């Protein structure tokens, strides 16, 4: 696979900066809202034809350099039998939040037979994509644990941190099981043809570096190590992780995702050598007029040149109220402006 | 005023590290829940006898080195006529969220006559406190703006950032008015006897340093400058602000509050010379057993020694489920451990 995205992840020269957008598929697209009508979120993630259609929708609008499998981070949890659903306007809601060690029995290993729809959708997508990369998708161990412990979305994840501090034995047992499930979920996607993977440890930025290093990193490292031999770039992303960038790379990622709170030039100084970066336009900038937006896109490209490799993306997911026309314009602008930049 | 708290804020030698806790008054105390029964939050903030009682409650339990005026950051907004209320379990809810410049007419200057209950409560408290410092309380301009723009609490403040990027004229007009209101609110508290002030720009950590410097700092600086001649230490706090610490100090604070995501030793390296630090125990640690908690308290004290002055506090407010007995124990431990540390 010689696409610009894969080359940038491997820190090889690229003809232009590759670009994709977290949540490029989903609520910002009218055609997404149409196909989802009357279908619950987790149902849409388990119907291969819908997963395929939704994953491909943004590629019909934008000249992005990758598709990302449409899924939800709780899909593998539900697949192993956890009582979890996505409540519209709320997010994941867990029937029996995890409180003590006995709750760990809700988590068993994930087998390919648990998620046949994933294998089917990925295979169909790889055929449709004709060489364009497909990024596999999974939630990171802290973020998955936070949903199971809080019982749903949470602003500050205090119950999660309290359990992490107060019951390290249960914490490590829980994250160990989640790491196994995530590893299996990503292996299944790669086996079916995914050409890169992104681990979304979205909420891990609530931890200090010391706590991240002892409580989360060993589990993320097991996931990345298990994928090391598969030849696919591994991207690692979380929000508000400016203090954790080095560690999130050191966990075994090839590419470290950066949110908008720190420039890519500074991020490049924080990660170890041998890492590419992904990011980091503030998604709220997509709601601003083009004369405000354009110099900020250019700034991300300029700062990204300090990194050994750069995949242009947002610093978090596309907001539902985003105009798809703006994403199309940003995509083309990134390609053109970065192609000019490498010319003599 | 020669108390340890004021001395630490001024980076003078102290007999022991002073300590107080954000939200030390409030939901974690059964006596608070009793006096609040049947009384709406904003009503409780406008009855001087209740404000006084609630502010003093934690001082009957803990040997903390300061009281902080019990209030809410929307109190001055409601006092100038903004249709805002605190919805139990939700937070501030604004009747007519700010969308365009015409909404600015909802904000007029704050006069002492708008908040007689504040003057009365502060005077009563200063009498009761017999020399122990009373910290005045106000919300910072970004955080106040975020409630007015979002219409209520928000996870990522996207509407706020979108308005900041997309309509800088309205943004600066809004923050200018909020800075005037906040300045007046804090002046009233100091005039009545408050011996320090804390500006809570709680949610400003969603901004990058560049955006903070251009969009918020000038307004915060006006607030701090207006208080400069009053002789009270000025504390400046926000959550997730590890990238902003230098700027939040440079805005004119004497003391920079730090959340738990970055150690005080590292924070001390990030702020300019001439700043004290406040913080930064993770409030979720108070839910852990003492053998877990004690070394973390000690670590905060150790790292705090790198700062020119250190006020022990949490990295954010006391969680409602916190055992008051633990806060009492932490208070005593901080005093004892830090007193030992300065002895030969």
Could you explain how this protein is built, in words?
The structure is a homodimer of 344-residue chains. With 344 residues, chain A is of the alpha/beta class. Chain A is 46% helix and 11% strand. Chain A has helices spanning 4-9, 30-36, 41-44, 48-61, 75-79, 116-129, 141-150, 158-166, 168-191, 209-215, 217-227, 245-250, 264-270, 290-304, 324-342, and strands at residues 67-68, 84-87, 91-94, 134-139, 196-200, 234-237, 255-257, 276-281, 310-314. Chain A has a seven-stranded parallel β-sheet with strand order 1-4-5-6-7-8-9. In chain A, α4 packs parallel to α6 (116-129) and α7 (141-150) crosses α9 (168-191). The first copy, chain A, is globular, with a radius of gyration of 19 Å. The mean pLDDT of chain A is 96. Chain A binds chain B through residues 155-156, 158, 161-162, 165-166, 205-210, 240, 242-243, 260-263, 282-285, 287-289, 292, 316, 319, and chain B through 155-156, 158, 161-162, 165-166, 205-210, 240, 242-243, 260-263, 282-285, 287-289, 292, 316, 319.
């Amino acid at each position: 696979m010689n696409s610009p995205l894969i080359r940038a992840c491997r820190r090889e020269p690229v003809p232009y900066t590759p670009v994709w957008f977290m949540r490029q598929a989903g609520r910002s697209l009218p055609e997404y809202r149409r196909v989802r009508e009357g279908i619950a979120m987790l149902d849409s993630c388990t119907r291969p034809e819908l997963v395929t259609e939704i994953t491909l929708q943004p590629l019909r609008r934008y000249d992005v350099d990758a598709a990302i499998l449409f899924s939800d981070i709780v899909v593998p949890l539900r697949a192993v039998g956890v009582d979890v659903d996505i409540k519209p306007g709320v997010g994941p809601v867990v029937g029996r939040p995890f409180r003590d060690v006995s709750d760990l029995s809700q988590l068993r290993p994930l087998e390919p037979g648990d998620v046949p729809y994933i294998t089917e959708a990925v295979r169909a997508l790889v055929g449709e994509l004709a060489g364009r990369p497909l990024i596999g998708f999974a939630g990171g161990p802290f973020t998955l644990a936070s949903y199971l412990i809080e019982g749903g979305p949470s602003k500050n994840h205090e119950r999660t941190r309290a359990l992490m501090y107060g019951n390290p034995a249960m914490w490590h047992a829980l994250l160990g099981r989640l790491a196994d499930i995530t590893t299996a979920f990503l292996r299944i996607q790669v086996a079916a043809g995914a050409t890169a993977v992104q681990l979304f440890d979205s909420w891990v930025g609530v931890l200090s570096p010391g706590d991240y290093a002892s409580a989360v990193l060993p589990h993320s490292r097991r996931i990345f190590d298990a994928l090391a031999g598969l030849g696919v770039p591994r991207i690692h992303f979380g929000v508000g992780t400016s203090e954790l960038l080095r560690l999130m790379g050191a966990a075994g990622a090839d590419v470290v995702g950066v949110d908008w709170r720190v420039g890519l030039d500074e991020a490049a100084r924080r990660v170890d050598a041998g890492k590419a970066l992904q990011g980091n336009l503030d998604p709220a900038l997509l709601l601003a007029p083009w004369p405000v937006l354009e110099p900020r896109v250019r700034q991300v490209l300029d700062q990204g040149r300090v990194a050994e490799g750069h995949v242009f993306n947002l610093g978090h997911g596309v907001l539902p109220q985003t105009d798809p026309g703006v994403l199309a314009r940003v995509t083309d602008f990134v390609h053109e402006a970065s192609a000019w930049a490498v010319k003599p």
